[in-house]
Design goal:
Elements lengths: L18 H17 L3 E2 L5 E3 H8 L4 H6 L1 E4 L5 E4 L4 H10 L8 E10 L11 E10 L4 H18 L6 E6 L3 H17 L6 H9 L1 H5 L7 H5 L10 H16 L5 E2 L11 E8 L8 E7 L3 H4 L7 E7 H10 L12 E6 L1 H17 L5 E3 L6 H11 L3 E6 H5 L2 E6 L7 E4 H9 L2
Parallel strand pairs: 1-5, 7-8, 12-13, 12-14
Antiparallel strand pairs: 2-4, 3-4, 5-6, 6-11, 7-9, 9-10, 10-11, 14-15, 15-16
Helix pairs in contact: 1-5, 5-10, 13-16
The structure holds adenosine-5'-triphosphate and magnesium ion.
């Protein structure tokens, strides 16, 4: 026997027992985004490497060490998308959707990052993301957050997630603050770990994001960007908070929340949970007014978020919040004999036409009644339809209840659809 080929580490199959959960979550997401008037956009899984370098930033975990990058046969450097925002901007801009227009878009699909696989962290994972373009006020920031809050509510998750909020201010305010932060970090160089020392000059804000407990106290005392905001950003942030309060959405302000990607300004937020261990961020987003221009489009304000689907599914499973979904068959047709096998094909087709939404399975592979009943039982069907050669000659079939103690019933094929419609 030849050696079995295994899946790539960190890239998981979604087996039939798990697909109903995913379908449930996906359908709740579709319903929610649609109720706010957002439209779906789909873009390729592979893009030019340059797209991510230019958007996410060279000095980020993703670009430094997580991308799946390869040369294709003509020597172009391509990358499996590690996130969707850059792709969405590229696609929408290329199609001319961003030019002097407002757009509310969403997407869903696999993303790829070469990280150490663990619970809630995979190399192929899935994101649902949403991006709103062409609107610069705090009203649209509030809308995307309120939309995410509605999704938690619909899924029963509201008590288990909390909203953290911060603002990164304008580029100018951030640049001025950056100098302050660097000089503070220089004074505490002895406390910085290797990653932070490396980032201190290239991306000092990311040092604030460090989870290293040895640095926690020093970072807690670092100067805060919130104290050095430009007037417009401060006002924007105030107005956003007022809107969230008006919508009854609770939040905490986390001055150290900076996000792992370079393109954000003003509003940033994360929905976090304590029910998933260390992979606690379920959804993260913010405003990125500079990105469209940075990628070659006309300057366009934008705000959005991305939600980790695996983490959401895990959370729902952990909290036992998934409604029971059955993939049992409804009807199982058992042809007994050669003529019956032929007749059963059209009976099954007719039943599928008149019983939309029902799972009508036709036994394949022959065998006697005992074998077929065994399969019928495994299918989970409540009702079996026996098609015997003799009965068929009389234009009849037999209905057999598979899970209830009820007598069999002989029915004319002509009446079958009408009889079954009542079940
Ligand atoms: P983390 O700090 O957990 O690495 P991140 O800042 O890299 O997250 P984002 O780029 O903001 O994550 O992606 C948005 C969301 O996608 C995350 O909040 C998380 O729910 C999910 N996500 C990110 N990376 C992974 C991964 N490797 N596996 C599963 N989900 C992920
Ligand atoms: Mg990450």
């Amino acid at each position: 026997m030849s050696k079995e080929i295994q899946a790539i580490r960190g890239m998981n199959d979604c087996l039939p027992q798990d697909t109903p959960v995913w379908q449930y979550v996906e359908s709740m997401i579709r319903r929610t985004v649609s109720s706010y008037g957002y439209d779906e956009i789909r873009f390729p899984i592979v893009e030019m490497t340059e797209l991510f370098k230019r958007s996410i930033g060279e000095v980020t975990d993703i670009v430094e060490k997580e991308m799946y990058t390869f040369s294709d046969r003509n020597g172009d450097s391509l990358t499996l998308r590690p996130e969707g925002t850059a792709c969405c901007v590229r696609a929408a801009n290329q199609a001319g959707l961003l030019y002097n227009q407002e757009q509310r878009l969403w997407y869903m699909g696999p993303m790829f990052r070469h990280e150490r696989p663990q619970k809630g962290r995979y190399r192929q994972f899935h994101q649902f993301g949403l991006e709103a373009f062409g609107m610069q006020g705090p009203d649209i920031d509030a809308e995307v957050i309120i939309l995410s809050a509605r999704l938690w509510r619909e899924l029963g998750l509201t008590p288990f997630v909390t909203l953290e909020l911060n603002t990164l201010g304008s580029n100018a305010a951030r640049a001025a603050y950056r100098d302050l932060l660097v000089s503070y970090l220089e004074q505490h160089k002895d406390l910085l770990d290797e990653d932070s020392l490396r980032r201190m000059y290239s991306n000092p804000l990311r040092v604030l994001d460090s989870k290293n407990p040895a640095m926690a106290e020093m970072l807690a005392n670092a100067p805060k960007l919130l104290d050095h905001l430009d007037a417009e950003s401060a006002e924007h942030f105030q107005a956003l908070q007022q809107r969230l309060q008006a919508a009854g959405i609770e939040f905490t302000i986390n001055p150290r929340l900076v996000r792992g990607l370079d393109y954000y300004n003003k509003t940033v937020f994360e929905w976090v949970t304590t029910s998933l261990g260390s992979q606690g961020t379920v959804c993260a987003g913010g405003r990125y007014d500079g990105l469209v221009e940075q990628l070659g489009g006309k300057a366009t304000p934008a705000v959005g978020f991305a939600l980790g689907m695996e983490r959401l599914v895990l959370l729902l499973q952990t909290l036992d919040l998934i409604p029971a979904v059955s993939n049992n068959a409804d009807l199982y047709l058992m042809p007994l004999g050669e003529a019956a096998e032929l007749a059963a094909v059209s009976v099954a087709e007719q039943l599928r036409s008149v019983l939309p939404g029902k799972r009508v399975m036709l036994h394949c592979g022959g065998g006697n009644l005992k074998k077929q009943l065994k399969r019928a039982d495994k299918s989970g069907a409540a009702l079996g339809v026996l098609l015997g050669d003799d009965e068929l000659a009389n234009g009849q079939v037999t209905l057999k209840w598979l899970r209830a103690d009820q007598p069999q019933q002989t029915v004319n094929i002509a009446d079958l659809a009408a009889v079954l419609k009542q079940f």
